[in-house]
Description:
Layout: E1 2-7, E2 11-17, E3 25-28, H1 34-44, E4 50-55, E5 58-60, E6 63-66, E7 75-76, H2 77-84, E8 88-93, H3 94-106, E9 111-116, E10 120-126, E11 129-130, H4 167-176, H5 185-190, H6 194-218, E12 222-226, H7 228-231, H8 235-243, H9 250-254, E13 257-260, H10 266-273
Parallel strand pairs: 1-4, 4-8, 9-12, 12-13
Antiparallel strand pairs: 1-2, 2-3, 5-6, 6-7, 9-10, 10-11
Helix pairs in contact: 3-10, 6-8
The structure holds zinc ion.
Residues 143, 153, 155, 157, 160, 162 line the site of zinc ion.
Amino acid sequence: MTLVLDVGGTHIRYSIAQDLPLEVVECESKDTNLYTLIESVLELHPKIKHICISYAGQVRDGVILAAPNRQGDEGDIKSYFEQKYDLKLFIQNDLSCAVLAEAKFFETQDLCALYVGTGLGLGVMSGGRVLDGFSNIAAELGHIPYKKAPFMCGCGRDNCMELFASGLALLKWKQYYSLAEEMTFSDLQKSSNPQAQKIVALFEEAFIHAVGITITLFNPEVLVLGGGVIEQNRSLLTQLAKKIKDYAFHLSTKECTILITNLQNAPLQGALLLKENRDA
Length: 280
Ligand SMILES: [Zn+2]
């Protein structure tokens, strides 16, 4: 039996994996202690022998190094559960999990997964290998210094790309301009309020930059877009198609297919692949 979890900035989704599609339980991320949640599931299902975690933060060798959009998980989660229980635990950054699932779905070895959810995340597969870097924190697109914002990023700086193109950025900009927090991205687009228009323009500009950087640096065959903000606002793709040639190297753009994800929950599906992937 395998427990598979997708730990995001807004939600934690988990499932006892038997077959796809996964039957998923969802809870609020900020109110949930990850260790307590896993222990309560293990108590109910003592036959669990594998735990696979897709994590919205930086992880290395089973250790959670940092989580800009969550708090309190830092530490050696792999050793904790493997020493206490008779099981194996695999954990990887959520976009590194997503890219495994997306590459399997699109049957390609050169794919980037760029997701705009709570944060702005990127996973890169090049030549069939997930790009991990020296400390397993490569491709942190959301934390590329971009422009100064009037508030801080979870990583401690005030100029990250994620402060302009992410779900959290939209919330922070609405708070900054005292706009109703319930306004969705599409409400902002339709609004005649100049500050709402400014938020949309800042978001689109940063998002297209993020895609341009990704295509120029990694030359993927397929670039998959996903995450709540993208999936609920497909009009962004039209903007992107119109403008991308001005934001990316033309030879890379010409050969890259940009698509929106078809998968229900790529990070969760990718987490399941971790135990088959020797890099995990
Ligand atoms: Zn940051």
